[in-house]
Amino acid sequence: MSSPQPVEEQLLARARAALNAARRQHGSEESVKLEILEGAASRLGGFSLAAYRRALGAELRLSTAEALDASDIVLRELKTVPIHPSLALCALARPDLRQSDQKKAGVYYTDFRLAQYLVKGAGDALTPEAQVIDPACGTGILLVAAALQVCAPDRHRTAKWLAENVTAADMSADAIRGARLALASLSDDVGAVGEMARRWRCHDSLLSWSTASPAADVVLANPPWEKVKLSRHEFLQANGEDRHYGAEYASLDERSFAKARQARATYGNELAALYPLLGDGEADLYKAFLDLFLRIARPGGCVSVLVPAGLIRSQGTQALRAWLFERSRSLGLTVFENRARFFSIDTRFKFLAVSLTRCADETPKACKYIEVVHGEGTDGGVRVVGRARIARSTLAALRPDLTVPEVRSEQEWKLFRQMSERSERWDLPSSEWHPQIVREIDMTRERPLFERSSGKGLLPVVEGRMVHQHRFGAKVYRSGTGRKALWETVQLGEPTLGPQFRIAESKLTSSVSRRASMVRAGFCDITGQTNERSMLAAMVPAGVVCGNKVPTVTFPADPSEERLFAWTAIVNSIPFDWALRRIVTTTVNYFLLLSVPFPALSPSSLPGRRLVEASAELVDFDAGKRKASPWRVAELRAAIDVVVLRAYGLEFDDLALMLRDFPLLDRGQPPLPGEDRSTVTRDLVLTRAAEQFGVDAAEYGVRLGRAKKLGALPYIPSEFAGAGASAEEEEVSLG
After folding, report:
1. Could you count the other beta carbons within 10 Å of the beta carbon of residue 705?
2. Which of 369, 365, 403 is nearest to 389 (CA)?
3. What pairing do the DSSP bridges indicate for beta strands 166-170 and 201-202?
4. Most exposed: 2, 49, 632, 685, by fewest CB within 10 Å?
């Protein structure tokens, strides 16, 4: 997972360098940086820095003249930056935090583009008369964005608004000082800033405002996103150890860790007593903050905030979702991915901008519609790239847990709705498809039992990267540990199993030992909604044990291998994968998996038997029982996709729409002349679908023939491209 430099940091790099250079001349303390930025604020606002210092009071190391001179250097650089200077001051004023401290506090400061988008989300509620509160203000970028929208360029109006309408709080005194100076830069009225500052608090809002009366017309916030629970990895990082996930814990001071963990647990229990909607699972700070936001917003008031995407898909947020929906007169959810580098976190991380209007009376009236928007970052703002309106009653009927599918258009919502209406509830124990899903061994807890060498009685340990679609043992271990481990791809049909670890069967529990002796299905639970493919499942042979990232699947109501073969075919299909991608982000947990619409299909039916036969043949290819034939594999895969599509009651056009969601397919294949990338998989499956549905789609067949001549192979993952295989032509029809 990559942690890129945010766009905002790149834009402000020269200004920050100038600030740091000026700072080094006077000392490294955080206060020196803030004094320089207060000088910049006085230049921008046109007020007396000396008067500001007298009115606001703070420990000073620089003279007024020194602060102003140093600020001039920074301001020269800010003139070249395409960010409003007051917003830039917010970014430059942020406290210097180590990555471990940032994660510990859950602090991910708001990008200027998101700040402007959240403010727009407040809509008509944000007026010069509106009381605005940010309970976790950081350095105030949301409040500055709000001031710019409500008051700019009227400095008199800005001063009045600051003096009477803006309230904020944060746990960092330095952050509050930064927020104050950034807002001061918008006005020349030091007295107004002083009036504003009297209402501000340096405290934990979750504890101090839990019983506050509704007072806000608008709540703007980007609350902490961290879990209260402390992990060993985070504890070691916080204590200065440079490490990666998967590294050993040999240096851990268990006594100190236990003490720190208990302190976190005590805080978590205190929050749970104050905010019941935290639920029974691990406490997420953002859940408590959402509860707080609705408490302090007036009836008819607006809440516009950033939260993780778990709000709309996690099992632990079901009660919170229902509570929000019931108390919102209107509700908009904008889905973002971090590809625009809003934050220094994994680019695949999903989060939401939530904009809601609280019901205007005491009787909850659920919003009739939920607006789902998809946004992406541009150089200077946010662009809306998709929109769908979901009737809440329909959502509740199709998804009783109220998880919200990430559909990008009315057409996608219609397709997802049709799949849901025509599917089987396989989460019910009465269903023959109801699976027993087991994590066989924990890769962290059982690590001391692992062996590096092979030997009698030692079972291979299967890790997530070894499983791919219809491929078991798709990679072999070479060297390294954790995320730095090196793995090599295996050619189709090469029956090689190269695990990193083995474990003595005698060290397994009796239930796991029994499970390891049977054939079952398994899937990699680490995924990505925008990966080449999201669901990676394969048949798992007897004689191996699977790590916790490869949950294994059996069907107690029908222990036959036929059901396992059919299940593996269905979940690896494009239709199932498309539905999964509407509700998953980075992990295929059981709760989400069982909520994916599953086709009402019996393995003993004619289409079911065709899936079983195709899946079994694919296993034979993978295991080397048949000579590897990439085109035969591709035709089997395409035939499976068409059978599953029909099992959902869908049509050719539905498949064409689904395929737009897989833009990374065929990256390793040669494109047709004049095109940027190959579409050989799309062209194959649409050609076979057109034949089954009687649709005239000759263009795809023509493209497929041209791609074959270039040596392109369908259904080959990009990381396995070039694994060496002949390109003989062989068609299969399961229709």
Report:
1. 12
2. 369
3. parallel
4. 2
**pLDDT of 240:** 57
Which of these, 107, 105, 104, 343, lies nearest to 239 by C-alpha position? 104
Q: How many CA atoms lie within 13 A of 434 on its CB side?
A: 9
User: If you count DSSP H runs as helices and E runs as strands, how many of each does the chain have, helices first?
Assistant: 28, 23
Burial class of 682 by CB neighbour count within 10 A (0 to 12, 13 to 18, 19+): buried
Which stretches of 338-409 are assigned E, i.e. beta strand? Answer: 350-358, 369-377, 382-391
Count the neighbouring beta carbons within 10 Å of the beta carbon of residue 694: 7
* Domain covering 436-599 in this structure, CATH number: 3.90.220.10
Whole-angstrom distance, CA of residue 507 vs CA of residue 452: 15
CA–CA separation, 214 and 324 (whole Å): 16
Residue recorded with tokens 């192979």: 713
**Whole-number pLDDT of residue 280:** 64
At 48, the amino acid letter reads: S
Output the pLDDT for position 730: 39
Outline where 278-427 has alpha helix (H): 285-296, 318-326, 392-398, 410-421
pLDDT value of residue 494: 86
Please choose, from the candidates 5, 40, 6, the residue with its C-alpha nearest in 3D space to the C-alpha of residue 22.
Answer: 40
Q: How far apart (Å, rounded) are the C-alpha atoms in residues 532 and 645?
A: 19
Q: How many CA atoms lie within 13 A of 12 on its CB side?
A: 24
List every span in the chain annotated with CATH 3.90.220.10: 436-599
pTM given for the model: 0.88
Would you say the C-alpha torsion 66, 68, 70, 72 has a positive or negative sign?
Answer: negative
Residue 107 pLDDT: 62
Q: Which of the 8 DSSP states describes residue 110?
A: P
Q: For strand 436-438 and strand 552-554, is the pairing parallel, antiparallel, or unpaired?
A: antiparallel
pLDDT at residue 257, rounded to an integer: 73
Return d(Cα 483, Cα 50) in angstroms, integer: 53
Q: What pLDDT score does 556 carry?
A: 95
420 touches 398 (CB < 8 A) = yes
User: What is the rounded CA–CA span in Å between residue 595 and residue 576?
Assistant: 11
Q: How far apart are CA 581 and CA 528, in angstroms?
A: 8
598 and 433 in contact (C-beta within 8 Å)? yes
Low-confidence ranges of the chain (pLDDT < 70): 1-3, 97-107, 229-251, 253, 280-282, 361-366, 722-735
Which two three-digit tokens encode residue 718?
């990009």
The beta-strand segments (E) located in 34-154 are 132-134
Q: Do the beta carbons of residue 138 and residue 107 sit within 8 Å?
A: yes
pLDDT at 363: 56
Spatial contact of 721 and 670, defined as CB atoms under 8 Å apart: no
d(CA 688, CA 616): 21
Q: What size, in residues, is the chain? A: 735
Query: Could you give the residue ranges of the DSSP H alpha helices within 137-283?
Result: 141-150, 155-165, 173-184, 190-199, 205-208, 232-238, 254-274
Distance of alpha carbon 402 from alpha carbon 432, whole angstroms: 25
Taking the CA atoms of 615, 617, 622 and 623 in sequence, report the sign of the dihedral they define: positive
Q: Where are the alpha helices (DSSP H) in 435-516?
A: 510-516
* pLDDT for the residue numbered 98: 56
- At how many degrees (to 10) do helices 13-24 and 30-45 cross? 120
